[in-house]
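Entry 14: structure prediction run for Glutamate decarboxylase. Input pasted below.
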Amino acid sequence: MWTVIYIASTAKMAEKLQSRLTEEGFLVKLRPVNMSKQQFEILVPSGELDEIQEVLNSILHP
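Run finished. Output tokens:
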């Protein structure tokens, strides 16, 4: 099952986060939320949620 871990405000940010998390070895999907505002959900497997949250925090808050 896939879980939303973050909502990115731009496609560029969503792609950057997807790339960084994929480099760390995680499966990541992007899904548009609101095309008029260009928001994208970042989805990850729910079984890896805790691990991915730690990595995501280190990416967002270096």
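Notes: The helical segments are 11-23, 49-60. Will compare against the previous run tomorrow.
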